[in-house]
Specification:
Helix content is 50%, strand content 10%. The protein is an alpha/beta fold. It folds into five domains: 169 residues, no CATH class; 147 residues, 3-Layer(aba) Sandwich (Rossmann fold), CATH 3.40.50.300; 75 residues; 175 residues, P-loop containing nucleotide triphosphate hydrolases (Rossmann fold, 3-Layer(aba) Sandwich); 70 residues, Helicase, Ruva Protein, domain 3 (Orthogonal Bundle), CATH 1.10.8. The strands form three sheets. The chain has a six-stranded mixed β-sheet with strand order 3-5-6-7-4-8, with helices on both faces. It has a six-stranded mixed β-sheet with strand order 9-11-12-13-10-14. Strands 1-2 form a two-stranded antiparallel ribbon. Helix 1 packs across helix 4, helix 13 runs parallel beside helix 16 and helix 23 runs parallel beside helix 24. The longest helix is centred in the first third of the chain and has 32 residues. It is elongated. 34% of the residues are buried.
């Protein structure tokens, strides 16, 4: 309905409502005049009083669409008597003459409020069933029955939401505020998601008239796309959309029933569907799961449930559809459409971005808008098709956009280490470079060459770094992240592993899901704490410990980024687990020649040195991590004394480091 047509309808609707109230008021006035001895009682056929005035006929003819009153009566199945009770309550709010008239009819000027008693005696076609809690007026809470000495003498009041509706004003029910909010997001959809929209539209459009629509359950981890799909479906069907989270659903059964009824009334009044957003809802919460299922079961209107995993035991017919992440072809199409000619100027560099970052359409649009706005500066070189500037900006914007929120489970490590900082034998370095190649070329091998179509298993790139503490395992992870221009997060296993059943898998799921969009490099430090030998099942805890390991294996195989695990005890890792790891790199304890090389590289170029004997320092039988500690502590000693770094400072720092290791420093004596 256009704005002009809607305005015309509102004006005509108000005129119709006031004309209808005038007819009712006239009926009550005639009833008062005809009542014997001016007391309440039966005066016979009250319907004979009704002669619709010309004003009502004119108001009816002027309506461009059905009035709110007639629409409401049809939607809730009100009888003529129930319709008049509703008008009686509306008259008190909208016509100043009603209060004094009703008070006169009651015989008490202090009681200018309608009652069932007055309605039964003064209105035509009365029936007692209209007073029942299961009848529309009270079941749908169109009116409120306030406390009184008896049901028929209790004051009646129209619900505010219904009053606004009759007046032609669409305003969401205030009682639902903060619980169910409108969702009007209409994001861009990729072809596979538009197919889901078409499927839902067909299902609901072809459902038998008069029957409850089947629940639509959207599964998968594309929460934003699920919202977009729901909003587009409702827009195509001419419906509004309200969203609720399971976390705000009351736990009390009476409150849940009340909420369900209020929403269903709102859904009828505003032609709305309910979107149950379970993005951050864990089905392991039994109490919350129960109230969620109860609410969904009690709402008879259109419902779309968005979940990561399928909800069971829904008491209505349910159709489950999977909302998958956009594949690389769909992502590439969105990139090209949004970037336009600029995508052509990238000379194939867009392939690397699509390969690395798994973003939905909304995220791609946001990244493009930000990157393009940054390059509107006059000095920008976006228009040069051979310039790497824009592709670099685009990559870093993607990286920032996809950066996971893992602060409570992982530590973000700034990766500044390079290949020159890493002292390792040639075979180990070669393996690390192969890992980089696997990450960079996975799109070509998996998709263009078809390996992903052969099998979806084992496509994750995982590595195990084993070796003594300080041999360079963490530094190697930094080098990989820096080379790949990706974020590195070290997972704190002490926070991931939980003694409570199911919590460890939940924490691991959060880690992998958050890291998925940007292909973040995940570093599971001291991994043997979680990935040790799977034990024989002796009790329930053993069984769930094995489930944790199995879940980790499954997620690592599906993870599109690089997952690196470190351990000091490779022998503690189950061989069945090792078979699932693509790369295993042994970090040897450095020999004298390697230690000398580490000493040469450990000092920044700006450090003033005097008389530092690298060969003598290389005799210290320690790992690279200890060498870094000694170099740093010696630098502080030299800075405090105001002179250059000398052997005396290094020997003093070495003594402190050996004391920490509880070893005698005999190598340099």
């Amino acid at each position: 309905m256009s704005d002009i047509t809607n305005q015309n309808w509102q004006e005509a609707n108000q005129q119709y409502l006031m004309a209808t109230l005038a007819v009712l008021r006239e009926r009550l006035e005639r009833y008062a005049e005809a009542r014997p001895n001016n007391t309440e009682g039966d005066v016979g056929d009250v319907s004979s009083f009704e002669t619709p005035p010309q004003a009502l006929k004119q108001a009816t003819d002027a309506l461009p669409a059905p009035s709110a009153l007639e629409t409401l009566c049809m939607a809730f199945g009100l009888s003529p008597f129930e319709r008049d009770i509703l008008l009686l309550c509306a008259g008190i709010e909208l016509d100043s003459k009603f209060a004094s008239l009703i008070a006169a009819l009651h015989g008490e000027f202090s009681r200018g409020v309608p009652t069932f008693s007055l309605a039964l005696s003064a209105l035509p076609n009365p029936h007692w069933s209209a007073l029942s809690p299961s009848a529309p007026l009270r079941f749908w809470r169109l009116i409120e029955v306030r406390e009184g000495s008896a049901l028929t003498l209790s004051p009646l009041r129209m619900d505010e939401r219904i009053l606004h509706y009759l007046a032609g004003v669409q305003h969401p029910d205030e009682k639902l505020a903060g619980i169910i909010e409108p969702l009007r997001k209409t994001g861009d959809l990729i072809p596979s998601h538009r197919n889901v929209v078409d499927r839902i539209e067909s299902i609901w459009s072809n459902s038998p008239s008069g029957s409850a629509l089947p629940i639509i359950q959207l599964c998968g981890d594309e929460a934003e796309s699920q919202r977009d799909i729901a909003s587009v479906v409702c827009a195509k069907l001419g419906m509004n959309l309200g969203v609720i989270s399971p976390h705000v659903i009351p736990s009390n059964a009476v409150e849940v029933a009340s909420l369900a009824r209020l929403w269903e009334r709102e859904a009828i009044l505003s032609a709305s569907a309910l979107f149950v957003d379970c993005e951050r809802f864990e089905t392991t919460d039994a109490a919350r799961n129960f109230t969620l299922l109860r609410l969904i079961g009690w709402v008879r209107g259109p419902v779309i449930v968005a979940t990561r995993e399928r909800l069971r035991s829904l008491c209505r017919p349910t159709i489950t559809l999977t909302v998958c992440k956009p594949n690389s072809c769909e992502q590439r199409a969105v990139w090209e459409e949004r970037l336009g000619q600029v995508s052509v100027n990238l000379n194939g560099q867009l392939e690397g971005i699509v390969s690395q970052f798994s973003l939905n359409a909304s995220a791609i649009h946001a990244v493009c808008s930000e990157a393009l706005s940054e390059n509107q500066h006059p000095s920008s070189d976006v228009t040069n098709p051979k310039s790497p500037l824009f592709s670099n900006v685009l990559w870093e914007t993607c990286r920032a956009n996809a950066r996971p929120h893992l602060d409570d489970l992982a530590q973000h490590i700034e990766s500044s280490a390079t290949w020159d900082d890493l002292v390792l034998p040639v075979p180990q370095k070669q393996t690390l470079r192969e890992m980089v190649a696997h990450v960079k070329q996975r799109a070509k091998v998996y998709e263009q060459w078809g390996f992903a179509a052969k099998s979806s298993r084992g496509l994750g790139i995982s590595a195990l770094f084993s070796g003594a503490s300080g041999t360079g395992k963490t530094m190697a992870a930094e080098v990989l992240a820096n080379e790949l221009r990706l974020d590195l997060y070290r997972v704190d296993l002490s926070q991931v592993v939980s003694k409570y059943i199911g919590e460890t898998e939940k924490n691991l799921r959060r880690v992998f899901d958050a890291a998925e969009a940007g292909g973040t490099v995940l570093l599971f430090d001291e991994a043997d704490a979680l990935f040790g030998k799977r034990s024989d099942v002796k009790d329930s805890h053993d069984r769930y410990a094995n489930i944790e390991v199995s879940y980790l294996l499954q997620r690592m195989e599906a993870y599109r980024g690089l997952a690196v695990m470190t351990t000091n005890m490779k022998g503690a890792i189950d061989t069945a687990f090792l078979r699932r790891i693509r790369f295993i790199v042994q970090f040897p304890f450095p020999d004298a020649e390697q230690r000398a090389e580490i000493w040469r590289r450990v000092f920044p170029a700006g450090v003033p040195k005097e008389g530092v004997d690298i060969n003598r320092l290389a005799r210290l039988n320690i790992a690279g991590g200890n060498i870094s500690n000694i170099a740093l502590n010696a630098a502080f000693l030299a800075a405090e004394r105001g002179n250059s770094l000398q052997m005396a400072h290094l020997i003093r720092a070495a003594q402190s480091e050996y004391a920490k290791l509880e070893r005698p420093m005999t190598e340099m004596s």
